[in-house]
Amino acid sequence: MDDPDVTDTIIRPRRAESASATGERHAAHADASAPPAPAATSVYRLRVGADDPVPLEVPVLVGRDPRAPRVATGARPRLISVPSSRRVVSGTHVEVRQHGVTVVVTDLHSTNGTVVVVPGAAPVRLHPGDSLVVAPGAEIELGDGVRLAVLPVDPAPAASVAAEVGR
Description:
Blueprint: H1 19-29, E1 45-48, E2 54-55, E3 60-63, E4 78-81, E5 94-99, E6 102-107, E7 114-117, E8 124-126, E9 131-134, E10 139-143, E11 146-151, H2 156-166
Parallel strand pairs: 3-4
Antiparallel strand pairs: 1-2, 1-11, 3-5, 5-6, 6-9, 7-8, 7-10, 10-11
């Protein structure tokens, strides 16, 4: 798309449908070899460098000195600071948020851009303000050696709850 007025990805919720029509359509198009989609309440995780993963239950803003927007809309974001000795990483460089069963990466008008690496595909350079829907396994490069990794839903909480119930 070469239209300079198009600067973002728009995600719209599906229109409401009757439960029977939705169930029939999903059953008709189900692929037995495809893994099931995570439930809407499942939360993906984000690893920043070698740190422990953080859940994407709220949007995550990453940068040298990230700041939340002055006008809040929705959940208050988690702020994660990363080192950038050469100041390649912008103050508030990128936002990673879970939207339903997808993860959206948005370059927050960073000076040096953001590169998203999806396994098996060529790296994608996000320009200032660009967004991209990614899946677990994607890596996000901010520069200065700072890498983020989108991780799958953590199965451990469900397993620990099942173990507690079985006692």
